[in-house]
Amino acid sequence: MDRKYKLVFNDHNLQESITYALVTKFDLEPSVLRAEIDDNGGMMIVRLRGSEESIDNSVGYLNEIGVETVLLNKHIYRDMDKCIDCGSCVSICPARAFSIDKETWDIDLNFERCIACGSCLTACPTHAVTLTI
Ligand code: SF4
Ligand code: SF4
Question: Is 82 found in the same domain as 122?
Answer without folding.
Answer: yes
